[in-house]
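Apologies for my clumsy wording, but could you write out the amino acids of a protein and the tokens describing how it folds?
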Amino acid sequence: MRGEARVDSGRRSPNGRIFAGNVHRRTVGLAYGPPGVCNADMPTTKPSIPALKATAMRLLPQNLQHWWRARQDSSGLPQVGKMLEKKSLSSVFQPMVELGSGEVFGHEALVRVPRSMGELSFDNLLGAAEEQRCQKQLELACVDYAIERWMQERPKGQLYVNISAKTLVQLHEAGATDSLLQLLRKHKLQPKNMGLDIAGYTRISNVDALVAALVPLRAAGMSMALDDFKASDSSMLVWKKVLPSIVKMAPRWTQGIDGNMESCSMVSSMVRMTKKHDCLLLAKSVESEAELRVMRQLGVDLAQGYFLGSPAVDTITTVNLRARAVLGAEAH
């Protein structure tokens, strides 16, 4: 989520985010020509983007044109409200693993966008929701889907759901913070078994409003995590005020850490800070055996990433064999 929530289809982008669906592109002509048209007959100058779109729409079969337009508003953005009405989104879960024991601590719920939407990421969908003034509804719907799917299995451990600081503050200011607790009551999930993975906390103007929004949720038993923590001054300010149960480091501190002394030094500092504040530190986007080994050696408490387990519809009770081989060998 723009920080908060995320999408899975099994393929990562360079910035660590996950996109839904793969689009197979076919080369058209040598430069711009449609299939079956000789390039000699095509203009030698590059057509404008509107002209390309118009050509594409003429070439698309009528049913595909209808499909595309039905999912777009006049600005070209997906119609978020209609997607929510049709319950087009679904949830998958990625394990969060204890590095000391190798046990599964819990799962983070991620959002899966329908493959029919092509390469639309959740960030794009969230941007469309913000533009269409329904970001809060989208985020609450994603929490609802995640809890509903989670309760079908009733696995052990905690469920962490993504939500933005902006939405939490809006709910608080509208006197609607209880709407989150209502979702838990609806699905009969105990608050102590769910945590909020909060994103976008450095983009809000009033951190105290976020702290106030979390008071009734904490009182009910929910735990809090700060997502994509970057160790900046603004992030540190939020940490001191929110006092989360988990700090989830931004992927930049994980990627290639086995060959980066600067990252090792920063992570070591964060390990000391989290222990001082009685907080758990989680490494995101652990993609290799070397990264996992270094994180464990540095004293990081938790980790998640493809090396430990890919996002999937079903939760897991034990980590995969390759991760178990690393953690088991070093646990004693």
